[in-house]
Amino acid sequence: NEIIAEKPAAVLGKPNFLHCISAAIFKTISKLLYSVKVSGQNNIPQGAVILAANHQCYFDGVFAVQKLSTKKLYDTYFFAKIRGIIKSGLIRKYADCSNVIIMDIKSGVKESIQKAAEVLRKNKILVIFPEGTRTPDGEVSEFKQSFAILAKELNAPVVPVAISGAYEALKAGANMPDFRAKISVQYLPQMRPEKDESYAAFAERVRKTIAAAVKSAK
């Protein structure tokens, strides 16, 4: 919380036109390749919100914003853990101009958290995958607490996003996607941490809510 409160706030880069164009392209491709059913869009409020989603495959970023308007996409940022493929080169440059906040646990954690906080202070949307990595078995794994800290310290609502079917669509280690898989994306009712609730307890409460929705969608 001291990092979040520290001034001056981290500076966010201005969204690049490539962000909306690429998002629109990926959304169109995903709709053509997969049967994607989305529900609960009305649970996404105007202004600052954290979309906390479970992580089943590489396409989850696209699935999580499947029904957002172009205007909302322009104001949407993705919080992602750094991977070897995006450390440098063209993909890193693409991430930098596509509203992606990259967190490297070895360096730059403070800056990435401050940028995420600034997204919410500016009444924008933050998409985060609290598991930190894709599920190895289709189950919803333990949630990291970053999103819970941001929600509590900045009084930002959390909309849990339950993604199911994406694990079957593109399992880790699979050579080819399964285009027969049916994807379900549920935007669940808003959640907020209770006054005396710990970060860990709130993170677990959100995780259980998503896990229950994923299970019911199967």
Secondary structure tally: strands = 7
Mean of residue pLDDT values: 85
What shape does the CA trace take?
Answer: globular
User: What is the H/E order?
Assistant: HHEEHHEHEHEHEHEH
Tell me about the largest β-sheet.
7 strands, mixed
Strand content: 15-25%
Radius of gyration: 16 Å
Helix content: 25-40%
Class per helix and strand makeup:
alpha/beta
Unreliable segments (pLDDT under 50, ≥5 consecutive)? none
Number of helices: 9
Terminal CA distance: 38 Å
Strand arrangement, major sheet:
1-7-6-2-5-3-4
Brief account:
The protein has 218 residues and is of the alpha/beta class. The protein has helices at 2-5, 17-33, 60-64, 70-74, 89-96, 109-121, 146-154, 166-169, 199-217; strands spanning 35-39, 49-53, 76-81, 100-103, 125-128, 158-164, 182-187. A 7-stranded mixed sheet has the order 1-7-6-2-5-3-4, sandwiched between helices.
What does this protein look like?
With 218 residues, the chain is α/β, with parallel strands linked by helices. It has helices at 2-5, 17-33, 60-64, 70-74, 89-96, 109-121, 146-154, 166-169, 199-217; strands spanning 35-39, 49-53, 76-81, 100-103, 125-128, 158-164, 182-187. The protein has a seven-stranded mixed sheet with strand order 1-7-6-2-5-3-4, sandwiched between helices. Strand 3, helix 5 (89-96) and strand 4 (100-103) form a beta-alpha-beta unit. Helix 7 (146-154) crosses helix 9.
